[in-house]
């Protein structure tokens, strides 16, 4: 194994072979640069020194020749260590080729010093021998023409050049210096070309680049590039500059990024991530926090748009993450926070309307643009007042995200070990949030913190340290007991805290106040305080539904002696509450009416009947001006209360129960005078008078009701009135009853007059003349609605049959057939035909069947045709049966051509099961079999429809072929031998 001295000697031996290209090799200094074969090339170049093509051809010919030799050379004779250190220059042939190519390039550049093509080729050749073989990366898709710096950094990081097997920076230090000197000479001739600068700066990213070149010299080179190139090309240099600064880390990264942020703050978020997780230095959380705070404030003012698409709140959330992660390095402690809050409060108190008051001169406004804020200065070492920042920039701006902000602030204090301050922060957050989501977030974090604190104390008690004495252990136990009680109290307080949140969001929510009362349970003092606070807080015009129930329940609370009923009932306080409620301007008049009704019911429950009457008298006091619109919401509800039907209904029920008949009548009359009575009040008033034997007065009430209301409401009043009148007087006042019926029928609409006609006819049958009754029924058949005419004719026919016999009903049937619709006409015809059969008029019955057939589709009304079929079987002959079948076919053909054909077929398909049963049952009957044959197509098919075609001749001439036309299914075959 070689010793260290031998290793050093070998390294020095390898380093002694360099530099190869400095001084610049020429044939005078190095005779091995060209041979006899190169004489012709040299002579051509001497004859045409100004021909660029000659120089370019000579250089590439020589380069290809040496590349061929290098590929053919065996490098196995060189040790691996030498290859690792020397890279492409590990063999003598490679070093010789570098010298020859350098000689040619330098000679060409002497003739064409301003040729970018020549310089680029020369520098790439030199880099291939020093930096090694370049790795070509495959790229998918194109690049943006002018990308944002964030995207440009990512793309450049992917596209950054990389090399393999380069020259070691220590062994080949002189060759590296020669390469750098060559770049400096190229930039001296072509300083404005950005490609040369980019090629130059790519050398600094090589892992084998000497530190003397890749640090200070690299930074100065980047600075010279920025000073030399125009501003439009600076972005291409800055991308490399920032990536190089990230690789170096430490103060270099900070200084370079600070310089760039002064020009373009779009990469501030990227810079903060570098500050928090640097490669080889200590994190700088304070600077990162101040930068993010500045960005959050600018974004909230609309002065900054995040290139990563973050909202202002998300940027502030990143700031809070830093605060939680590096709490000691970023923020003040408790004492410093209190002092800072006091100073801020004094400064705000000294301001007037946002302007700073000065002793000399007018007040000067302090804006967000020109004012210096040390909290946003990343160079300032002063820490931040996190509480003030969270309140000012978080809670005042993002009120819908209060839960995250409060928990972030509390976490900051927990990380600093300030548990009391964290608890006060949690409590303050719970006491101010307005949504259940924020409350749940804070409460869960609060409960988790308490549990973790208790668990830590339990662990310390289970495994005490050696230096802990008994007093410390007892003190820890006492603290743990206190924390356990606080945690249990916190869990018990949760329903109240949720209720507080909902009441803060809407203090006029009556239902939440009721829940608050229910939460206190049997604590009468708290319940009374809650009711009092609720009534003081709620605005009646903004309250939710059932505000009056809050007053009623509060009064019942005193009436029942508290929540448990253990105390004495306090009616005085209950009356005071209800008295106060009567002066509240509720949203609806009915709410105020409920208050008065509940007050009166309370007096009734305690048997204060006179007081209950007096309460209702106060409530129902009628003002002088009664022409007030009940629905005029511009007036207070107290002014419209006298028109509340609910209030008057309760009042009149109270008078009926405990008052006199006269007092109840007076109340009913007031309701009628105010014109607020409905039909139910009319009926109730009349029923009340009937119970007290005031018959004529009750009938007058009915008459007043029929005058006030129109149909269809007055129909119910007339119906009750007439039935009561007939029941009371019967036939003793027949003329008066007739007048009443005529009055009722005069304005009654057709759809409602049927019951009145029936009642009128029954009156005439019972107490009047039968002829008059028949005329009433005749009128009814003409007046009632179309849908009631069939039933009315049926009743009329029944009455006529009972009074005059069957023959008298014929004209009624005839008139019915004229006015009834088609569907009902068929039914009436069946009844008319049955009547004629009873009377023995067979021909008239058959004519009626024939008349009704035009309305009956055989597929829809099989019942009619079955009945006619039975009629012909029983009473007809062969001719009449044939006539019936002919009519049936014609009717079916008629319906087939109408628009109702499809609907008829659909209905027939649904009724197919029931319509076929009678025919099956009658199949044994020969006449039924004939009818079954008659059920065929609606049209009779012809024997031939057209002349036979040529291709059908052969088929028609065949003796065994089937007949061309089927027999007519409706054709009736009658034997000629029959008599």
Task: Please describe what this structure looks like.
The chain is mainly alpha-helical. The protein contains 48 helices and five strands. The chain is elongated. It starts with a helix and ends in a 22-residue tail after the last helix.
So what's the oligomer here? single chain
- Which percent bin holds the helix content? 55-70%
The unreliable regions are 1-9, 356-368, 913-927, 934-979
Across the major sheet, the strand order is 3-4-5
**Major sheet characteristics:** 3 strands, antiparallel
**Proportion of residues in extended strands:** under 5%
Average of pLDDT: 81
Measured distance between first and last alpha carbons? 147 Å
**What gross morphology would you assign?**
elongated
The gyration radius over C-alpha positions equals 56 Å
Q: Structural class of the secondary elements?
A: mainly alpha
- Number of DSSP helices? 48
Strand element count: 5
């Amino acid at each position: 194994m070689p010793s260290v001295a031998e290793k050093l000697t070998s390294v020095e031996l390898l380093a002694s072979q360099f530099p190869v290209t400095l001084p610049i090799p020429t044939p005078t200094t190095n005779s091995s640069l060209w041979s006899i074969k190169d004489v012709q090339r040299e002579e051509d170049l001497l004859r045409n020194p100004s021909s660029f093509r000659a120089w370019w051809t000579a250089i590439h010919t020589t380069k290809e020749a040496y590349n061929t030799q290098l590929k053919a050379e065996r490098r196995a004779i060189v040790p691996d260590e030498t290859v690792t250190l020397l890279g492409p220059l590990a063999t003598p042939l490679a070093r010789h080729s570098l010298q020859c190519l350098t000689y040619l390039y330098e000679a060409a550049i002497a003739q064409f010093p301003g040729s970018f093509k020549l310089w680029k080729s020369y520098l790439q050749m030199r880099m291939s021998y020093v930096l090694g073989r370049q790795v070509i990366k495959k790229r998918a898709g194109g690049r943006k023409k002018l990308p944002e710096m964030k995207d440009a950094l990512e793309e450049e990081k992917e596209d950054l050049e990389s090399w393999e097997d380069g020259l070691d920076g220590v062994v080949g230090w002189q060759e590296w210096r020669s390469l750098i000197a060559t770049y400096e000479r190229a930039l001296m001739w072509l300083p404005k070309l950005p490609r040369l600068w980019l090629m130059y700066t790519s050398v600094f990213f090589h892992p084998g680049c000497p530190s003397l070149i890749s640090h200070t010299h690299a930074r100065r080179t980047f600075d010279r590039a920025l000073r030399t190139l125009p501003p439009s090309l600076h972005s291409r240099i800055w991308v490399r500059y920032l990536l190089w600064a990230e690789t170096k880390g430490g103060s270099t990264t900070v200084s370079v990024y600070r310089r760039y942020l002064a020009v373009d703050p779009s990469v501030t978020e990227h810079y903060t991530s570098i500050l928090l997780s640097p490669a080889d230095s200590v994190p700088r959380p304070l600077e990162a926090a101040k930068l993010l705070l500045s960005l959050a404030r600018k974004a909230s003012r609309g002065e900054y748009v995040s290139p990563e698409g973050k909202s202002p709140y998300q940027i502030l959330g990143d700031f809070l993450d830093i605060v939680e992660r590096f709490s000691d390095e970023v923020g003040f402690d408790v004492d410093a926070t209190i002092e800072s809050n006091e100073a801020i409060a004094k400064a705000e108190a000294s301001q007037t309307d946002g302007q700073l008051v000065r002793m000399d001169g007018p007040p000067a406004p302090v804006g967000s643009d020109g004012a210096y804020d040390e909290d946003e200065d990343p160079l300032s070492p002063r820490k931040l007042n996190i509480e003030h920042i969270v309140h000012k920039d978080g809670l005042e701006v993002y009120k819908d995200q209060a839960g995250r902000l409060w928990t972030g602030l509390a976490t900051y204090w927990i990380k600093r070990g300030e548990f009391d301050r964290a608890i006060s922060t949690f409590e303050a957050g719970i006491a101010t949030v307005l949504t259940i989501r924020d409350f749940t977030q804070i409460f869960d974090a609060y409960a988790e913190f308490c549990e973790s604190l208790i668990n830590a104390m339990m662990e310390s008690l289970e495994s005490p340290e050696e230096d802990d004495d008994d007093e410390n252990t007892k003190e820890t136990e006492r603290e743990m007991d206190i924390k356990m009680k606080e945690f249990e109290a916190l869990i018990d307080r949760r329903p109240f805290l949720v209720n507080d949140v909902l009441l803060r969001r809407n203090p006029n929510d009556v239902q939440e106040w009721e829940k608050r009362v229910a939460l206190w349970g049997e604590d009468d003092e708290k319940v009374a305080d809650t009711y009092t606070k609720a009534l003081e807080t709620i605005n009646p015009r903004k309250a939710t539904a059932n505000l009056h129930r809050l007053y009623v329940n509060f009064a019942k609370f005193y009436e029942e002696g508290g929540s448990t009923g253990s105390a004495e009932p306090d009616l005085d306080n209950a009356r005071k509450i209800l008295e106060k409620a009567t002066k509240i301007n509720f949203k609806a008049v009915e709410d105020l009416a409920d208050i008065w009704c509940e007050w009166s019911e309370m007096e009734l429950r305690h048997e204060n009947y006179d007081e209950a009457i007096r309460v209702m008298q106060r409530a129902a006091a009628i003002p002088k001006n009664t022409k007030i619109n009940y629905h005029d919401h511009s007036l207070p509800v107290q002014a419209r209360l006298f028109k509340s039907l609910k209030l008057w209904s309760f009042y009149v029920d109270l008078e009926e129960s405990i008052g006199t008949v006269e007092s109840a009548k007076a109340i009913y009359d007031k309701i009628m005078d105010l014109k607020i009575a409905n039909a139910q009040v009319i009926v109730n008033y009349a029923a009340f008078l009937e119970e007290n034997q005031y018959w004529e007065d009750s009938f007058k009430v009915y008459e007043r009701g029929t005058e006030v209301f129109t149909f269809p409401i007055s129909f119910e009043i007339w119906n009750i009135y007439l039935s009561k009148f007939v029941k009371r007087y019967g036939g003793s006042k027949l003329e008066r009853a007739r007048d009443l019926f005529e009055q009722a029928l005069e304005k009654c609409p057709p759809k409602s007059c049927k019951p009145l006609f029936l009642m009128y006819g029954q009156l005439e049958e019972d107490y009047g003349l039968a002829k008059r009754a028949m005329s009433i029924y005749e009128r009814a058949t003409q007046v009632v609605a179309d849908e009631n005419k069939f039933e009315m004719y049926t009743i009329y026919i029944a009455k006529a049959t009972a009074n005059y016999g069957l023959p008298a009903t014929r004209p009624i049937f005839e008139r019915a057939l004229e006015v009834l619709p088609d569907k009902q006409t068929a039914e009436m015809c069946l009844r008319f035909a049955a009547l004629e059969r009873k009377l023995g008029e067979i021909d008239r019955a058959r004519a009626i069947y024939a008349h009704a057939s035009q309305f009956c589709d055989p597929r829809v009304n099989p019942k009619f045709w079955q009945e006619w079929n039975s009629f012909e079987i029983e009473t007809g002959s062969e001719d009449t049966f044939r006539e019936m079948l002919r009519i049936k076919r014609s009717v079916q053909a008629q319906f087939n051509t109408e628009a109702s054909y499809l609907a008829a077929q659909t209905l027939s398909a649904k009724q197919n099961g029931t319509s076929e049963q009678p025919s099956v049952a009658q199949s044994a009957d020969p006449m039924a079999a004939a009818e079954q044959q008659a059920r065929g197509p609606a049209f009779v098919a012809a024997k031939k429809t057209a002349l036979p075609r040529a291709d059908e001749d052969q088929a028609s001439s065949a003796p065994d072929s089937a007949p061309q036309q089927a027999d007519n299914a409706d054709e009736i075959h009658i034997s000629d031998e029959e008599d």
